[in-house]
Amino acid sequence: MTERLANILITSFTKILMPGIRVTIPLTVCSFAFSMVLALFLAIVQVANIRGLKQLSQLYIWIFRGTPLLVQLFIIYFGLPSVGVMLDAFPAAVIAFGMNLAAYNAEVIRAAILAVPEGQTEAAYLIGLTYPQLMVRVVLPQAFPIAFPSLFNNLISLLKDTSLASSITIVELFTTAQQIAARTFEPLAMYCEAAVIYLIFCTVLTWVQGYVEKRLVWEHKEGDRKGLRGLKTGV
Question: What is the reported pLDDT for 124?
Fold first, then answer.
């Protein structure tokens, strides 16, 4: 029994890993990229206090943070066809995951933008920068290091949430584990193996996060040192 289980685990590892590389990772990357574009728009609309759009942005965030991701996924994939909108499983998942995560990322970005000292904004306006130039050249570069840890944590959570895509027929990492478990009658072993692969992916992302955070801290310190040297030399 032990030898049979060991053989199943060895042969199934690659079979579960490959859909994780071919489907789970691309699904995560596409969904996160979509969420960031939408989140940036939602955050800037709120910070700029654009009447009407600000209220719509807050309504969007309230709805998507207050309803389950699985329900949103089912509405987009199974519900929209009833009103004539047909989507394949992968783009439906990207839209659902991206729209859900955008609600969370928007609040992270908004908070990071508000954390930038107001003096920076006032100085930018004094030298004649427009609002778009202010955001691109002054505010967002300073807000990014503040938002990065929370945004990356959301990325790691998204990677795990993609297992929900199995519910709309996407054959990703977890779906493959389910299929092998049904054939081998070893659900505990297969689900544990899937969990280990998810853990490997998340560990790699955690290492990347730690490295980038150290780089951001180092660049911030270097900027401070250059500023101090400039003050001392009068440059």
Answer: 81
